[in-house]
Design goal:
- With 1257 residues, the protein is mainly beta.
- It is built from 18 helices and 90 strands.
- Strands 83, 84, 85, 87, 88 and 90 form a 6-stranded antiparallel beta sheet that branches. It has a 5-stranded mixed beta sheet with strand order 1-2-48-41-45, with no helix packed on it.
- The chain is globular, with a radius of gyration of 34 Å.
């Protein structure tokens, strides 16, 4: 009976079966009276003989044992769905139609639990049923299963079972059973060895529990006993109670519900069930979840969520039980402190909860800023280290349809996020999957869009599993729904039906049968290893259509990979055989005390320079529970296997080989994990007590242009470093919004900042101040008329720091944005570029920008120099920099809805060379621009920021993002019609019908239904004649990029994926770590997006460390120290304390700026230039270090760069310890060399006092 049976060529059935069974039989015999042990049963003798033979297959080590796995040959990956006739598993989760129509809760489905119930070494299957008995299938090997639920006493017939889990609750080595039900409580079954006996759990109130869903299991308090967290939903909902009548009363100023259907709320079954929301509408509450603390001997202590074990993020007690709609829950040690933390998925608009275990089984809610957003209808959760950085990431699934047509007929949430300027510690919800990338320091970035996993239809159970055994965990998701109650056309049909005649309550309920079923295909995503996933369901055989709920994994055939069991509504359970052929290792644990399976232990497998890590979990799947087995890819050996036990002790096994099964016993080789040396981050946030909050007021642009994809009214503020008071220290200027005043901060000799108090106070801004510059001690500001749209007043002001106005430049039709200065005409003084950000109320119509020449200290518009900038586009960022061989500064622009542009200076004007330089194909939503020598070749490269890949927009050269804009209905307003591509290669409107109809009411008259709209192309909705009057724009790239100068133009290179996680604004180029290579910092995030989109909040400010070859390494938050939570806008660099390290300021829209002190271990050389009169700071000069026999990277001194901002003119050059001189190419074209003494920290290079360079021959 222990012979290996062939399943398919090269595959072996699980052969190592007798050990656990033998030990269990021996234990039972030892418990019998002595006389009964005198006669040894024949079966036991045979078992002992077989044991001796099988034992030779195991290799015993000090703290583990292993045996070889026989793995099928080939190159396959994926699953085979086995026929019920082959397996003997004929289970279907049946549900009577009328039963489900009268109670929506049944549509949440049922789950499955896997584990070795009878100790024979084979993984068994337990399946829950909503309308019939549960089934227990004992694994008999060779993919044959025998149903035994009734004989084991766990069929739970008539209990309406939902969630289930197998776990050793009493620490005796057997798997006990937990079953949740809708109406019959949470049921506990103790494994006696031969069958199960039900443990009532009355003291803990389990018998009275209703609406139980998922179960998570862990030892929360370190006492060696496994505790339970159970989510509770409801056993019926208000949706199942038509014509419910409410009465109200007012207590003080608060309106309250007094009776429901004539029954007084207080003290009745309706107490705590309903509430009034902020809009006065009625909301139904769910039920509190319960944490059952294990006291031993199947006794449990009941802790409702809201009791003393759970406190707020600030440590204060919760104000009462949390009446939420818990669907799923999982324990995971997120912060790696050895204590299991907790994530709870709540349905509807109740918040998901991330609880951090603070010790002794007590939990504190994670800070608000830990998660920037959550899913709205959160169904299931799973964790994995998706990018192998040692930090656990996680996904939460929702119900966003992946099919465009279905999505257009799907009701959007009632409550939609409205951003408030400066508010970033809230946590909005979004109706889609959310994937959280762990950034360290208990901070996460939500990246489902960039990862391409935001939509997986009406999803239930996510599972990370390495399907193709490449070392990266892939993602499987079950989905489908019996009745899509959010189908808009059906909702309207039923509403009209109720309005047309009087219907009984039963008729109303039964009428819901017309809601369509979504028999969607289950989804598989392959992990590509770069934070991106690709669909692989069809390739991997995981695309069965139907309604699938719970899913669990386990090795059902003993080949060391994970097979799957899926509980399907009305269809046979899905039994999926894993076909993986690549090398692997499988790991089980024997944990300490009553935690016999090592639940909560972390397992790491290290080979080459790669580390895979997983945690041993119990329960946690949506309504389901895996077998306690973990599988790792092992392409080659040997490797190191490390088990980090919950008490932080470690067991390390060296020389682990592929295709082996390891069972690791609790025997720590070291008592406590070695603490890694704490890294000093590059930047340290500095207390800035005088910092003023940026004032941002909400304008009316959404009324003027309701279809714009994002607001333009929250573009500022810019920031600028410069010496305002001529004391030699860089002061700071930060713009402000309408109704505020510019904030000027005096640098107190590097020891802090205080507000300037000008003799003549600056007047309150009549408009938003966007860009700010400091030139010759004067303050230059641009003003945006985007909100008022008036072509009068001021566009630019030039003032002294004492408040005296020197010049005003009159407003134009377009709103002013970015400012930059350089000597464009070569006359020795600084001229001014004024970028046009937008045409008010006509976004995104192209507009013109301007050059103002300095004529004896007054700036005047130059038609000749502005000629090339007519209809240049929507300028977001600009910088002057030398590109070609002559000393004249070129103008580089970042254009929204356009391309990066390079205008070559001819000495008499600018000429657009963008197309010649290969830039014309890179149309994007460009925001900021800066220059640097990123590859050390002495030529000027540039970096441009963009929306990134996490916005929900998709584009490519082949399928660009297309918009049409113009006054389509001739009402005097410019409409912006966004589109998306259909699978048929045609363009369709991107926005929902309700959104379009709100702006263009005539559209609904042309369309008979939401379904009709979903099928309608752009031409169908707007007709060809109307579209012909519109302008068409195409966007081909969303990535922030660097452009490296090559012989014939520029070579475009996307920045790392970490730079694409959020919209980026100001790029700041400097050598921040003083290694002689240019680095980049980004300000990030935008919240003012269209209400159908989710805000872009995944950025915290990003440091990109240059490698010297044009490539960049993204620094972690721990490495950089940057943590800017709001909407980062202007950013600029300066060594404000003169210590030879470049510091940083980042402004936030509607919030205070963030100041960062550089703590780099190395220091750079401070270089001050003194140019000629009219350009004392030598703006436009180029600096490099003489690192004989070559020069280091070239740095351009610029005034105005990035996004609305200005860096200090004093340059800090890294790598100066090996430099012998500073080379300066002056704006005039003259070149000089200034020698350095060994160890010199600062130099002031005065034009005309250096040595000619290159030296004359």
């Amino acid at each position: 009976m222990f012979e290996t049976e062939k399943l398919r060529e090269g595959q072996r059935a699980w052969p190592i079966s007798p050990f656990k069974r033998y030990s269990r039989v021996r234990r039972r015999l030892s418990q019998q009276p002595c006389t009964s042990r005198m006669v040894v049963p024949l079966g036991l003798c045979l078992l002992a003989c077989a044991l001796a033979s099988a034992a030779s297959q195991w290799v015993e080590e000090r703290d583990h044992k292993w045996h070889s796995l026989e793995v099928a040959t080939g190159s396959g990956a994926g699953f085979t769905l086995l026929d019920p006739e082959q397996t003997g598993i004929h289970f279907r989760n049946k549900l009577g139609a009328e039963k489900s129509l009268q109670n929506q809760v049944y549509l949440n489905g049922s789950g499955v639990a896997l584990g070795d119930i009878n100790g024979d070494g084979l993984c068994d299957i337990y399946l829950c049923s909503l309308d019939g008995p549960n089934h227990l299938y004992l694994n008999r090997g060779n993919w044959k299963f025998e149903e035994a639920a009734k004989s084991y006493g766990v069929d739970c017939d008539g209990k309406d079972s939902t969630g289930t889990s197998l776990a050793d609750l009493d620490g005796d080595g057997d798997l006990d059973l937990i079953v949740n039900t809708i109406h019959s409580g949470t049921l506990l079954f103790r494994n006696t060895g031969a069958d199960f006996s039900q443990a009532l759990g009355k003291v803990a109130g389990m018998d009275k529990a209703r609406g139980g869903m998922s179960i998570a299991i862990a030892d929360i308090d370190g006492d060696g006993l496994l505790d339970l967290y159970v989510t509770y939903y409801r056993d019926t909902t208000l949706m199942d109670m038509p014509n419910t009548h409410f009465n109200f009363r007012t207590v003080g100023n608060r309106k309250m519900i007094s009776t429901v259907n004539g029954i007084t709320v207080r003290g009745s079954k309706y107490e705590n069930r309903f509430r009034l929301n902020a809009r006065g509408g009625i909301e139904e509450n769910g039920l509190p979840d319960v944490l059952y603390r294990n006291l031993g001997q199947f006794r449990f202590e009941r802790n409702e969520i809201g009791g003393g074990r759970f406190v707020t993020a600030s440590g204060t007690p919760l104000q009462g039980p949390l009446f939420e709609w818990g669907l799923s829950v999982m324990f995971r040690d997120i912060n790696r402190d050895g204590r299991p933390d907790l994530y709870v998925c709540n349905d509807f608009d109740g918040e998901d909860r991330l609880w951090l275990n603070v010790g002794q089984g007590r939990f504190r809610e994670a800070p608000a800023l830990a998660l920037r957003k959550t899913s709205m209808f959160s169904m299931g959760v799973d964790f994995a280290d998706i990018n192998r950085d040692g930090l656990d990431d996680f996904i939460v699934v929702d119900m966003l349809n992946s099919d465009r047509r279905t999505r257009k007929n799907q009701m959007i949430p009632r409550v939609q996020y409205t951003p408030v300027p400066g508010k970033f510690n809230d946590r909005p919800q979004t109706m889609r999957n959310t994937l959280f990338l762990n950034r360290g320091h208990s901070l996460f970035s939500e990246i489902a869009n960039v990862a391409a996993v935001a939509a997986s239809d009406w999803a239930w159970c996510p599972m990370f599993i390495d399907v193709d055994l490449d070392g990266f965990e892939d993602l499987l998701i079950t989905n489908g729904v019996e009745r899509n109650a959010r189908h808009l056309d059906t909702i309207i049909k039923l509403r009209k039906q109720r309005e047309s005649r009087t219907m009984t309550n039963l008729e109303i309920l039964l009428a819901r049968k017309v809601f369509p079923t979504q028999n969607t295909a289950n989804v598989a995503f392959r992990n590509l290893g770069n934070l991106k996933f690709a669909k692989a369901g069809s390739e991997w055989g995981f695309d069965t259509q139907g309604v699938s709920h719970g899913m669990a994994s386990g090795d059902l055939d003993g080949d060391g990979d994970l097979d799957l069991v899926v509980n399907n509504m009305r269809s046979p359970a899905g039994i999926y055989r894993n076909n993986a052929t690549k090398p692997r290792i499988a790991v089980r644990l024997t944990g300490p005390g009553g935690n016999t399976k090592g639940i909560g232990a972390r397992i790491e497998v290290e080979y080459s320079d790669k580390v895979q890590s997983q945690e041993m979990i119990s329960g946690g799947r949506y309504l389901s529970s895996d077998d306690s087995l973990r599988v790792f890819a092992m392409p080659s050996g040997p490797a190191k296997l490390k088990v980090i036990w919950p008490n932080r002790g470690e067991t390390v096994i060296n020389q682990v080989e592929p295709n082996r099964f390891y069972r690791v016993d609790y025997n720590p080789t070291q008592a406590k994990r070695a603490q890694s040396e704490k890294q000093t981050p590059l930047f340290k946030p500095i207390d800035f007590p005088d910092a003023k909050r940026h004032l941002e007021t909400v304008g009316n642009e959404n009324q003027n242009q309701p279809l714009v994809p994002w607001t333009l009214g929250r573009d500022g503020p810019g920031v600028a470093w410069g010496d305002l008071d001529s004391d030699g220290w860089e002061d700071l200027a930060i713009g402000n919004g309408r109704g505020g005043t510019v904030a000027l901060y005096r640098n107190m000799a590097g020891k802090g900042f205080e507000l300037f108090k000008p003799k003549t106070p600056f007047p309150k801004n009549p408009r938003d101040i966007l860009s700010v510059l400091i030139a010759d001690g004067n303050l230059i500001q641009s003003m945006s008329n985007n909100e008022d749209g008036l072509a009068f007043g001021d566009m630019v002001t030039i003032s002294q720091a004492n408040g005296t106005t020197l010049q005003k430049i009159a407003a134009k039709a377009a709103s002013a944005g970015h400012l930059a200065m350089a000597d464009v005409d070569g006359d020795g003084d600084l001229d001014l570029f004024v970028g046009a950000r937008a045409m008010p109320n006509n976004y995104p119509q192209s507009t013109s920008s301007w050059i103002y020449l300095n004529e004896s200290g007054e700036w005047k518009e130059s038609a000749a120099w502005s000629k090339a900038l007519r209809n240049v586009g929507l300028v977001s960022g600009a910088v002057f920099s030398n590109i070609d061989a002559d000393p004249l500064p070129e103008l580089l622009l970042a254009c929204d809805w356009g391309t990066p542009k390079v205008f070559v200076n001819t000495g008499e004007g600018f000429v657009d060379h963008s197309e010649r330089y290969g830039l014309a194909k890179f149309a994007g939503f460009w925001r900021g621009i800066d220059v640097g020598d990123f590859d050390g070749d002495g030529r000027r490269d540039f970096v441009v920021t963009n929306r990134g890949l996490n916005s929900g927009y998709e584009t490519s050269v082949e399928r660009p993002f297309v918009v049409f804009h113009g006054d389509i209905d001739e009402d005097g307003r410019r409409e912006v019609i966004e589109t998306e591509w259909g699978s048929d290669g045609k363009l369709y409107p991107r926005r929902n019908l309700a959104t379009l109809n709100g702006a263009l009411p005539w559209i609904a008259e042309r369309l008979g239904s939401y379904g009709h709209y979903a099928r309608s192309t752009m031409e169908d909705v707007f007709d060809v004649v109307r579209l012909a009057k519109m302008q068409r724009l195409e966007i081909t790239t969303l990535q922030s990029m660097v452009f490296l100068q090559v012989a014939e133009g520029f070579d475009a290179r996307p920045l790392p994926v970490e730079a694409q996680l959020s919209a980026a604004f100001s790029p700041v180029v400097a050598d921040f770590d003083c290694d002689g290579i240019e680095d980049i910092v980004f300000s990030q995030n935008v919240f003012g997006v269209h209400r159908e989109e989710s805000r872009q909040d995944a950025g915290y400010g990003l440091l990109l460390l240059g490698r010297g070859d044009g490539e960049f390494k993204p620094a972690t938050i721990e490495e950089s120290g940057l943590a800017v939570f709001g909407e980062g806008r202007g950013a600029a660099a300066a060594d404000y304390d003169h210590d030879g390290r470049t510091d940083l300021i980042i402004s936030q829209n509607g919030a205070k700026p963030k100041l960062f002190l550089n703590q780099a271990k190395r220091r750079g050389l401070r270089v001050n230039l003194q140019g000629e009169e009219g350009n004392r700071l030598a703006i436009g000069a180029q600096i490099s270090l003489d690192l004989h026999p070559k020069a280091g990277p070239s740095r351009m001194v610029r005034l105005g760069s990035g996004y609305l901002s200005q860096n200090s003119a004093t340059q800090v050059m890294g790598g100066a310890d090996k430099a012998t001189a500073v080379r300066v190419a002056w704006p005039s074209g003259d070149r000089e060399r200034f020698d350095l003494a060994p160890g010199q920290a600062e130099i002031t290079a005065v034009k005309g006092q250096g040595k000619p360079w290159p030296p004359a021959r």
